[in-house]
Amino acid sequence: MAEIADQPTSPPGKPWPPPPDLHSVQELTANADVEGFIAAGAPVDEYETEAEQLFKAIATWSTEELTSVRLLPILEEIWAEAFSFDEAEVAKRRPALEKLAADIERFFGPGAQPQVRGA
What we know:
Helix content is 55%, strand content 0%. The chain is globular, with a radius of gyration of 16 Å. The chain has 119 residues and is mainly alpha-helical. Helix 2 (22-32) packs across helix 5.
C-alpha cells in the first residue's frame, strides 16, 4: 500500500489531467526557446505573445484533443504569423515545434501522468 500512497495524485475532485493553464503554456513555450532568443540572453517572457495565442487556440480543447499531431499545425501557424516566416522557415523550426507540441501533449494530453517538480 505504501507504494500507492507515494504516487502523485491530483487533488480530490479535480480531473486528471488538468486542462492547460496559461502559465504552464508560457513556461513550456519559453523552455522550448524555438528561436534561441532566451539562450542568447532575451528575457524569459520573450515568447509570451505566442504562448498566449496558443493558449487561446487550445483553451477549450478536451484532453483527447491535446495531441502533438493536432498541436503542430497550430504552432506552425502561430510561428509563421508571429515571425513572418514562409513555409521554408517554418520547416527549419519544425523539430523544435514538434518537441513543444509533444511536451504539451505529455503534460495535458490523453497519456498525461502526474508530474513531480524536480523529479
